[in-house]
Write a structure and sequence with these properties.
It contains 8 helices and 4 strands. The chain is of the alpha+beta class and 191 residues long. A hairpin with a 3-residue loop joins strand 1 and strand 2. Helix 3 runs antiparallel to helix 4 and helix 4 packs across helix 7.
Amino acid sequence: YMELNKMYKDKIPDEKLATLDTDYQRVLQSLIQKTQDGSWTLNQQKRQRSSILPRIALYKTFLQFGIEKEKAIELTRERAEYLGNKANKVLKTCFAFPCFSTVFRNVFRKSMNGTEIWTSQFLKDNKKELDINIYKCLWKDTCDYFGCPELCELFCSGDWIVFGNIKRLTLDRTQTLGTGGNVCDFRFRFS
């Protein structure tokens, strides 16, 4: 775990940098508390805590510091890209194994099960392709709930980092809910 004050050294004023980690933790705990109001299921709360709320908390911390919205998004994007690159390295290693596309499809199918995190429809699912339309997304719903729909694009663009530049895997997508589309149209191709 990289401390935030190390990641943002020389990018925000020193007086803000000194309190960044503690202010971030305070904001994060506040957001977690707000998800426990009864409108979110336990599964949704778990996913929010692990992969959504940390970035929203970082963004809101930057805004509380008086950093302009566009700059706060870019600073938050740095953290998102750092984490996305770590996930990409793991996937690259996994795709080096023969038949990993089958494992990938099974994991993806299992993660899409139910409607708590996503509402989705599988259009194709075979050894060469996996096509999924997502009609409802917890990331978008959470960003909207916390009044920062502009941040959702960060999660959407993160998919290009996580799934990008991997031999034997290609992602095509033309739109996402988080960027104003009617659907997230994931098209994975395996070679």
